[in-house]
Amino acid sequence: MYTKVLNQIKNAQAVKKENVKVPYSKMDMEILDILSKKGFVDSVSKKGRLPQRVIDIKLKYENDRPGMTDYRLISKPSRALYMGYQDIKPVKNGFGIGVITTPKGIMTTGNAKKEKVGGKVLFEIW
Q1: Tens of pLDDT along 25-36?
Q2: Rounded CA gap, 64 and 34, in Å?
Q3: Would you say the pTM of this structure is higher than 0.70?
Q4: Which domains does the chain have, with CATH numbers?
Q5: Using alpha carbons only, how large is the chain's radius of gyration in Å?
Q6: How far is 104 from 35, CA to CA, in rounded Å?
Q7: What is the DSSP string of 44-80?
Q8: Long-range contacts: 96-104, Cβ < 8 Å, 24+?
Q9: Is the CA virtual torsion 119, 85, 2, 58 positive or negative?
Q10: pLDDT at residue 117 above 90?
Q11: pLDDT (tens digit per residue) in 55-95
Q12: Residue closest to 125 by CA, chosen among 101, 105, 104, 96
């Protein structure tokens, strides 16, 4: 689940690790691809074969500062928050991104607003 992956990344960056390995899932891989493209992690690759397939995440640091400062879960297992594209606001005045699941797939809130599609808001990261 993406909540575990985000927490593992945050904890690994707190102790200055270079890599993190997490169990593979399609949803986690799509979310990590987005984080990689937006510069929160350095690179993402899947390794191994089923059933032991894992995602290898190379963490990013700039001047000894982690690429990901913090995150906030919006939708939780106990509560799902859906948002139309008109209601999407910038995260931290444009310094962060939001991740949303839409009928067109998992994307950032900025892309969802451009494509005029809403969905379930998963989390915000900065």
Answers
A1: 999 999 999 999
A2: 23
A3: yes
A4: 2-66 (3.30.1370.30), 71-125 (3.30.1490.10)
A5: 15
A6: 18
A7: EEEES-TTS-EEEEEE-EETTEES---EEESSBTTB-
A8: 96/124, 96/125, 96/126, 97/34, 97/38, 97/124, 97/125, 97/126, 98/74, 98/122, 98/123, 98/124, 98/125, 99/31, 99/34, 99/123, 99/124, 99/125
A9: positive
A10: yes
A11: 999 999 999 899 999 999 999 889 999 999 999 999 999 89
A12: 96
Structure tokens at 42: 């350095």
Residue type, 58: K
Please provide the average confidence, as pLDDT, over all residues in the chain.
95
pLDDT given for residue 50 in this prediction = 83
CA distance 109 to 54: 27
